[in-house]
Structure formats: C-alpha cells, structure tokens
Design goal:
Elements lengths: L2 E2 L5 E2 L6 H52 L27 E4 L5 E4 L20 H6 L19 H6 L36 E6 L2 E8 L5 E2 L3 H8 L8 E5 L3 E9 L5 E8 L1 H51 L24 H57 L6 H31 L7 E4 H15 L4 E5 L6 E4 L1 H17 L6 E8 L4 E8 L33 H11 L3 E7 L2 E9 L9
Parallel strand pairs: 12-14
Antiparallel strand pairs: 1-2, 3-4, 5-6, 5-10, 6-7, 8-9, 9-10, 11-13, 14-15, 15-17, 16-17
Helix pairs in contact: 1-5, 5-6, 6-7, 7-10, 8-9, 9-10
C-alpha cells in the first residue's frame, strides 16, 4: 500500500524511469529472440544427429543380420544331371598327376580343369562355403576316391563365431579349446564402433548379449539392462532407451533368420548428448556476450534519444525557480529550437512547453499591468484624498471650537464628522503606504534599536488598552538591526493593536524579543484571547481581512493592519507567521540581523 508523506509525495516502491522501462523492454525482446533461436537450434541439431545415428544404427543392424544369417554361397545353385557326364579333355587341360606327398603320403594333384578320376560328377566339396572349407581337416587322398563332404554348421553357430564350429576330424591331443567373450560374435567384426551393444533373443530369453568396449573387448551387461533389452519389440523401429549402467542408447530390434529369434543392436547417444551440450554452452556464451553488448549499446542509444527530454525538463525546472508571484515577470527561458521540432515526439513536447510559456508570459504581463494600474490608482486616489480630508478635519476642528454657539445636535454632528475624517485619513495613509510598498519604493536603511522600539510600542498599547495586561520579555543587551525604524515600529504597533481590539478585557498580551541564534532576531506577540478561526488563518494577512463577517466599524479597524505588517516585514527580507488556538495566539516576526533588504520587483 502506498501512503503519502508529509511533503505530499507518495512513499512506496520507486517507479521505474522511462530509461529503465525502455531498456528492460529491449532486453526482454532480445532474450526472447535468443531463447527462441537457441531452442530451435537445439531441436533441429538434435533431430539431425539422431537421424544420422539412426543411419549408423541401420548399417549396424544389417551387418548383424548378415552375420547371424550366414554368408551366401559363392558358386550359385548346384549343377544339374545333364552337366555331370564325362567331359573330354579340352585343349590346355592337364592330366592329374600323382606323386609322393609330405611325410610319405600319396597325393593326387589335379589340373586346373581336371575332375577326380573315376567319377562323372563334381565333388561335393566345391559347393561348400569358404567357412565350411576352412573348418574341414585334410585327409589322405587316394586315386579315384571322392573327398568326404564336411557338415554345414547351423546359422546360430556362425553367429557365435568360429569357436562354435566343429571340424571333420578329431582335434589333436594337447590343443586348447578357445573360449568366447560375452555377447554375440558380430560385435567383434571389423567396422563396429565402440560402445555398440548387440543381443540375440530367443523368444523372451536372451541367448547372447554384450557391449563392445573401447579396447575392443566385449563386456557383459547388467541384469536390469538385459531385461530392458528383452522387452524391446522386434518391429524394426529405432527408439531411445536409458539402459541401466550404460546411459541413453538408440536401439533397434528385428526378427532373425530363425523362428522366434530377434536380433538387436544399439548405439550410444553419448556423442549426441555431448554435441548438444557443447552447442548449448556456445549458445549461452554467445547470448551472454550479445546481451552485454545490447545493454551497453541500449543504454547509450536510449540516453542519446532521451537527452532532448532532459533538456525540456531542465527548462521547466528553471521556469519553476523564477519568482512568479509578484512584480513584473519575464520568462526568457525557452526550449531550444532543436528540441522543439514537431516532427518528433520529444520535439512536440518541447513545442508544447514553449507555447505554454508564451501563454504564461502573456498572462503574467497582463496581471502585472493590471496590478500596476490598480496601485497607481490607489496611490493617486490616496494622494488626492489627503488634501480634502485635511480640509474637512480643519473645518470640523474650527467648528468644534465654537460648539457653544451652535445647537447641541450640530455640535454632535461635527464631532462625528471629525471622527470619520480621522478614520478616513488613516485609511488613506494605509492605502498609500501599501501602494508604495507594492511599487517597490525603497525603505530607510539605518541601524534600528529593536529593544527601544519594543518598549515604546508596549507602553503606547498599555495606555490605549488599560483593561488588558501587558508584559514584556527583553534581552539584557540591546538588539539592533538595519532597517526602517518608523515602519518597524508600525509593524509591532499593528500587532499589539490587533491583540487589543480582538480580545476582551483582562487578556494577557506578552511581547518578546530575542535572537534566533542564526544571525537574526525574532519578535513574538502572544495573547490569551479566544483565538483566530481556523478558516481565517490562511488569509489573515490579506488586505481587508476581518474576523467579523459583519464588517462592523465600531472597533475602528480598517482590515489593513496585518497586511501592512506583512508587507513591511517582507520589504525588510523577513517573514511573519501566526499560530492560533483558543487561549494561545502567537504572531512571530523573523528579521535578518543586518544586510540589505531584498531587491524590489
């Protein structure tokens, strides 16, 4: 909740300046764009890398399927019976020759196009695959005998590798049987990348599973990871999985060559994640640098863009510091022409301020001219009224000297005319004094003993109001200031007269004089009367201000006494204030100790 301070300004969170709002909006827009670009870049790069990994995964799956299914035959389908008859030796044919073999064995060496003697069909061994031929063991050959046919190993045995195949002859004693590593054999084929996993699943049971390490050895997987792989559907779709102990993998499973068999391969997504992380870090660093540059450039540009607004505000502040409440007012301050270009937003504001200042200048000039005419009229009228009023008072005084020669009614009328002339003369003198003060006519400028003036004014008030109680508080040493002694005496006399006239008999009126400790003096007139109405306090020093609405003349007040006191105090460079409550009304006059009075306006 925002509350108001005694000065009138709201107290609460400080509002954001226009610069801060513009900079915040610019940064918010830039951050939004950077985040959008970063997210789009990460998503597009991730999709590209995953697609690239899926291509590698498809190649790995094809190699695994070929390894599990076995290689195709090298010579095509078996020959037909029509081609199995004896063929005459053609040109360039070589007759097989026999001779002693190594270690005393007899071996027949066929030529390039020779067939075994005594047979019209090709030997079955030619239809075997190279892997089968590599697994067969050479036996002694006899002329005209068919070589034995080696048994073709099953496809699953091929997937397990050479260690699962058998030879046609017993192994020699003393030869060790090779042991297999965890996982299917196709993981050990050339071209398989590190961290690739492979599995062969029979039904829901994994018969071979493993991972190729970076050192080229196959390692086993945890039981949890094996169960995760066993649950993969053999639908040929690539999917991302988080395997226990391995991290994220891209895996694919397809049906194998045997019924109920599934071949599964997987590639690690660690390179993809590392690439995305590096790109994200690069984007973050670039975004931070861009934001720092944007803040610097934004502050500079905003400051330059709002500089005309600062100059307009400075012009308004200079006008606000000018004294516009009295005297002839001139407003030479204007917004510069460069900042008053109506084609720009700030220029339109500057042009509007200049128009406002022109209007204010015209209004103040008209007010000053009107006040000048009124002051001149009052001064002229007061001056012109002094002569006839003096004549009236002279004739009434002359008539009152012979009051015994006239009827009593005429003598009373002459007395009333004389009283009214005296009162009117006082009013004219007051108006003439105010006119002179308003016109800035300089006062006397000489040392004044305020202690003596205070004593004289209180003595005069005691004589005029004997039914009041008059008290004084004076300093031990006399206090002097520079000013007009007659006008300062009039100020204190008007304050004491106001206290006497507007309070009842028995009221205590205390006059105090003291130094304020800051090079000035302070006069105070305090009374214990009924006080001043609260609605009258703000205008108590205005001209013709009265406490009684009937404007009664029985007190002899003209309503100008406090106005004259305020004008004289201001002419001496001081100020006058009042505080009032029932039983305690205080008028305080503050005057400078010494120095020239303020310049007239």
């Amino acid at each position: 909740m925002i509350t108001a301070a005694p000065s009138g300004r709201p107290v609460g969170p400080r509002p954001w300046s226009l610069r801060a709002r513009l900079l915040a909006g610019q940064l918010l827009l830039l951050v939004t764009v950077v985040i959008g670009i970063g997210v789009a870049t990460e998503l597009a790069l991730q999709q590209f890398l995953v697609d690239q990994l899926d291509g590698q995964l498809a190649g790995a799956q094809n190699r695994a399927q070929m390894a599990v299914s076995g290689p195709p035959p090298f010579f095509g389908p078996p020959p037909s019976d029509a081609d199995s008859g004896p063929q005459p030796p053609g040109p360039g044919s070589v007759t097989p020759r026999s001779g002693p073999g190594p270690h005393g064995t007899h071996v027949t060496h066929p030529g390039p196009h020779a067939t075994p003697p005594g047979s019209g069909a090709q030997p079955p061994a030619l239809a075997q695959s190279p892997s089968t031929a590599r697994t067969s063991t050479a036996t002694p050959q006899h002329t005209g005998a068919q070589p034995p046919t080696a048994a073709q190993p099953p496809a699953s045995a091929l997937a397990q590798g050479p260690a699962a195949t058998t030879t046609g002859t017993p192994q020699a004693s003393g030869t060790a049987t090779p042991t297999s590593s965890p996982g299917p054999e196709f993981l050990s084929r050339p071209g398989v990348p590190p961290d690739e996993i492979g599995a062969i699943i029979e039904g829901r049971t994994i018969t071979a599973v493993g991972k190729l390490g970076s050192d080229g050895n196959r390692t086993a997987l945890s039981d949890t990871a094996e169960r995760q792989l066993a649950a993969v559907s053999a639908d040929g779709r690539s999917r991302t999985m988080s395997l226990d102990g391995l991290g994220r993998y891209r895996v694919v499973a397809e049906p194998g060559p045997d019924d109920g068999q599934t071949v599964l391969t997987g590639l690690s997504m660690a390179p993809v994640d590392a690439t995305l992380l590096r790109v994200l870090m690069v984007l973050g660093i670039v975004a931070a640098i861009v934001l720092l540059i944007a803040i610097t450039v934004g502050i500079t540009l905003i400051r330059r863009a709002l500089a005309p607004l600062d100059r307009v505000a400075a012009t308004a502040y200079r006008v606000a510091d000018l004294p516009l409440d009295h005297g002839e007012v001139e407003l030479p301050v204007r917004v510069p022409a460069d900042d008053a270009d109506p084609r720009t937003e700030v220029g339109r504001l500057g042009a509007a301020v200049n128009r406002m200042l022109d209007n204010i200048t015209g209004a103040l000039s008209a007010r000053y001219a009107s006040e000048t005419r009124v002051r001149r009229f009052v001064a002229d009228a007061s001056h012109e009224l002094r002569t006839p009023l003096a004549a009236i008072r002279g004739y009434t005084e002359l008539a009152q000297r012979n009051s015994d020669a006239v009827p009593p009614a005429v003598a009373d009328a002459m007395g009333r005319v004389d009283a009214a002339a005296i009162r009117m003369s006082g009013l004219v003198e007051d108006l003439l004094l105010l006119a002179r003060l308003d016109s800035g006519r300089p006062l006397e400028h000489e040392p004044v003993d305020l202690t003596r003036i205070t004593a004289d004014a209180v003595t005069d008030a005691h004589i005029a109001g004997a039914d009041h109680q008059w008290e004084m508080n004076l300093p031990d040493e006399p206090i002097e200031i520079t000013g007009d002694a007659a006008r300062l005496h009039q100020v204190l006399a008007n304050l004491l007269t106001n206290a006497r006239v507007h309070t009842g008999p028995g009221t205590v009126v205390t006059t105090a004089l003291e130094s304020d400790g800051a090079g000035g003096v302070r006069w105070q007139v305090r009374d214990t009367g009924p006080g001043i109405p609260a609605e009258l306090v703000p205008e108590i020093f205005e001209r013709f201000a009265r406490g009684d609405s009937s404007r009664s003349r029985h007190t002899g007040s003209t309503g100008l006494g406090l106005a004259i006191a305020s004008a004289v105090v201001r002419a001496h460079g001081g100020d006058i204030t009042v505080t009032s409550e029932p039983g305690d009304t205080v008028f305080t006059v503050h005057l400078p100790q010494a120095g020239d009075p303020p310049e007239s306006s």
